[in-house]
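> tool_call: predict_assembly(chains=three)
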Amino acid sequence: MAAAAAAAAADFSAGAAEDPPPQAPPAPYLPPRLVVDGGGGPCRHHAYSRKQKSLGLLCTNFVALYDRDDVESVGLDDAARRLGVERRRIYDIVNVLESIGILVRRAKNRYTWIGFGGVPAALKELKERASREMMSPSMDETSVANVSDDEDDDKLDDADGDAESEKLSQSIDNPSDKPDAPCCKLRSDHRKEKSLGLLTQNFVKLFLTMEVDMISLDESARLLLGEGHAESNMRTKVRRLYDIANVLSSLNLIEKTQQADSRKPAFRWLGQAKRNEGATITDALPPTKKTLPNKRTFGTDLTNIDTKRSNLGSTMENKAKLAWDGGNMLKTFQRQLGQGSTSDFVYGPFHPAGARTQEIDRTVQEKERKSIQDWENLAASFRPQYQNQGELNNSLFP
DNA sequence: TGCTCCCGCCACTAA
DNA sequence: TTAGTGGCGGGAGCA
């Protein structure tokens, strides 16, 4: 795959890199040689199609362009020009890619391409960080808690005084509960806390730490924000999660599915790859009875369903929904984990301050030990697969 | 009709 | 001062 992508990118860049940018193309998002029709079918030459402009598809093309051995540096202007998109969209992509270790920012407008070899280490680091956060009441600065607290908005803007929501969210995840915490954050911190990259990491942490392999974006937003936030906050967060999910989908880290019982769309974690003979994480298997492939997946059309991991999903989500309705976050996750006892409960990165127990410590360590092998396997096997290899290759090599 | 998510404005940051 | 960065939400495509 990499070779194909590399050749494709080389081929593409050879034609486009030196050329002036295309003059107001009708469908500017996709340069002619990188068009991949995520939805399949006749939209390739439509005047306008959202599918052609999806962030996931853009990410796929971005990767196709730069995932080569001879690529070390990525210029944002260069990427935007080659892909025929606004620089703004490139920021969205690189922020997500950076948060999972594929890119590293070197300087203004310049990134270093690490490639997919960086993903396992980044995920491992994320999980370790999340575990540390669970162990320690003093959370590191990039924790979920920080990104989740829209009450900061309230403090800074002195607006939207949802006192109930503030209290709840703070009690759950706000490090400013700490007596020595600064009473006000710098605006730059505040801005950083809401970054797409951080949100990506926290979204991934949900899967890594909660052992929840299927979750809806609504629920993710609730978890990341804390319960009881204003509807507008929730909507905004969900919008961003859609962006992130599309990119992660295109990287095959997650998969969009639909629960058979509720028909509610959800995302399933694929990142912990099991090495199968000659296969990567995107083995095509028929859908399980618990899940149906979602009809609408921009940028990717993933087909790999891990039957082993699919069982938890819908029931857990339903339980979660019920529990959320009951308004008790902690109980929700105790039930989600289906383990009843609080000793086995994994709070995730937004654990309530002071919720540290030795039992949790032991549980997490056991889980971590088990998952280390997965990281190692992943390092060798992780590669994104374009949803339709044949079609992509055809597009790239007509 | 509601979900999905592209698009671009504009506030903020860093050089 | 200005170019780079990216949060944010309106609103349109899509199922």
